[in-house]
Amino acid sequence: MPLIDTHTHLYLSQFDHDRQKVVDRAGDAGVGWMLLPNIDSHTAGPLMQVCRQYPSSCLPMMGLHPTSVKASYRTELELIGGWLKKERFVAVGETGIDLYWDTNFAREQRECLEQHLQWAIEYELPLVFHSRNSLKELFDVLQAYRQEGLQGVFHCFPGNADEAKTVVDMGFMLGIGGVVTYKNSQMASVVQSVGLEHLVLETDAPYLSPVPHRGKRNESALLRHVADKVAEIRGVDAEEVAAVTTANATRLFGISDFLGISE
């Protein structure tokens, strides 16, 4: 059963010298599709170029990462909105709130998040959320949109089992990546507490490589390690993890419709 890497930054410079080999290795490892979230206006062009180069395996998202929300955020939003108007995407993102690196633009991050929620409603797309030191703030914003039927993923989910239940109750999925393989990671208890039907798999490449590659550049081919760890935690076969999480991602991101594939 093929896997779907629902979050990889394959367009970043870390892959400039061997991107083709990375794509080939992903295919050899059984990763059928790679979903690319955007960071800001500077990465949108490279992201789209990679997706055009590999149209059958790389699918684009569009958004403004919260750590890129600075004084020029309104210009950034205008540029991101322009991309959403003229191109097709599988999701709006990544967006969210990050209060770990810098809290000076907390209000602006919230404003940007709300704009992304409006885009998701307008274009009928799922959302991909980034959250760091900010789950409560993110939950507070989303509460006001409970009736909008929004869907999406809490990428690299940073919370505990109780917070995971809140995410699921709100109708969103959890993105599980390499962190689940780390010793003493609370992600094990999250994966134990939430059914597979609420999970999708991701790498966040080039970051957060799974064990036994921790500390090295991450890539989509390593997603198998994440699937194997989830299977171990859940006490099921890795093929079941692959089947369920791939079905989840295919449905959530409308991949068949995006690619014109008959189901």
How would you characterize the overall build of this protein?
The chain is α/β, with parallel strands linked by helices. The chain has one domain: Metal-dependent hydrolases (TIM Barrel, Alpha-Beta Barrel). The protein is 43% helix and 14% strand. It has 10 helices and 8 strands. The protein has an 8-stranded parallel beta sheet, sandwiched between helices. The protein is globular. The chain starts with a strand and ends with a helix. The mean pLDDT is 97.
Rg calc = 17 Å
Q: What is the fold-level CATH name, i.e. the topology?
A: TIM Barrel
Number of domains: 1
Overall pLDDT level? 97
Overall number of strands: 8
Main sheet attributes: strand count, strand direction, barrel closure: 8 strands, parallel
Task: For the record, give the distance between the C-alpha atoms at the N and C termini, rounded to a whole number.
Answer: 15 Å
User: What proportion of the residues is helical, as a percent range?
Assistant: 40-55%
Helix and strand sequence: EHEHEHEHEHEHEHEHHH
Contiguous helical run count: 10
Uncertain segments are none
Q: What is the topology, as strand order, of the major beta sheet?
A: 1-2-3-4-5-6-7-8
The CATH architecture name reads Alpha-Beta Barrel
Describe the global form. Answer: globular
Task: Find the structural class using helix and strand composition.
Answer: alpha/beta
Assign the CATH superfamily. Answer: Metal-dependent hydrolases
Strand percentage, roughly? 5-15%
The CATH C-level name is Alpha Beta
